[in-house]
Amino acid sequence: MYYQERLECMAREEKRALQSERLISTVKLVYESVPAYRKKMDLAGVKPCDIKSISDIVKLPFTTKQDLRDGYPFGMFSADMEDIVRVHASSGTTGKLTVVGYTENDIKIWAECCARSLAGAGGTKKSLLHVAYGYGLFTGGLGLHYGGELLGLSVVPVSSGNTARQIQLLKDFKTDIICCTPSYAVFLADELEKAGVDPKELSLKSGLFGAEPWTEEMRKDIEKRLNLKAYDIYGLSEILGPGVAGECEKQSGCHIWDDHFYPEIVHEKTLKPLADGKAGELVFTTLTKEGIPLIRYRTRDITAITNEPCPCGRTSPRIKRIAGRSDDMLIIRGVNIFPSQIESVLMSADSRVAPHYHIITDRVNNLDILEIEVELNDGANFDEIKTVEEITKKLTVEIASAISVVPKVRLVSTGSIKRSEGKSVRVTDRRKS
Ligand code: DLL
What we know:
11 helices; binds 5'-O-[hydroxy(phenylacetyl)phosphoryl]adenosine
């Protein structure tokens, strides 16, 4: 149930003292070892000695992806290269890769955090863990791999791709835990259906899904179709990789492992801290990292934090589902829309609608338009014009009422929307091209 019970269930006061102590040393470390931090702090008129407790964090300047790009590849590293034992990188939508480095101790802590998330999702020494996140520069595969081994699970490093073989292994090995992106979980469920495999023939009990936004409706669909409990796992390479936060058996938001990563929610524009429960941009300060510690790193992810006690006994704050990244937010005729809002409606409006969709925005005669292509489940009768009209109308009305923009909904044939083995691309914004 727990991997590190004492730390996961630590009293809040004790946690704050630990966070304070760790923040003080992290700030000292970056000020002394990274010229870019020293410059930023000097400009902001703040010295390491001004940071006396975790509450002083608000005095510190923010760090952004641009800072990492400016220092490409290793400029923001605090540790000497001789102490860096691993390098990962993630590609954004534009420009250079964001490169991160880990010391031996960073790798140990990363594995511990992933082990906490796996234990929260029911992993035990007896479990067989199928890791279908990609291995390589992407952090998903190796992060959960090391966490699984540390917890004593039998790890199967399948990586992404070759779905037929994945299904074969899940069947033959009687795998009980799987981890991959939620969109790949849906694809896997489709392929199982096509191959005539009843998910009950598999032994899956739980899945850890993350690396991209997904909704409660998508969770229900995956749970039903793969016959397992679906847990959310959150992370980003800049801070760690997977395992910054993970859900417990209550499935009510990811617990942030805040003895290592201190979270804040700030207003996206004013950057002022927001109260518990208010949605804004998630910001993290690493408290124990050595390779590339980050101070008030702006994730661009939009969510809210709750400090309400969780019945599982863990005392750490939880984040609500990530609504999306502020960079992915679509502004259609002045209205802010996250793809996840559209997904929620598609997944709950009609059981004939399949979990495969694509959002296209364009500008025609100076007017923004929003098109949604969506597939129907195999069994739905596509030939009946009445059925097509009925579903199209229903989806249009329900989406319009959810987002205040009337979309053009188009039902497309099964399989025509591109499937993904990793992170899915749900939106094409033609206004940008
Ligand atoms: O996606 C790390 C990861 C791997 C997390 C496997 C979970 C499982 P990056 O490639 O750097 O790292 O992408 C990080 O993905 O800022 C979010 O926008 C998004 N993201 C990650 N987890 C979730 C989640 C990995 N559970 C970016 N829900 C983050 C929504 C997520 N979005």
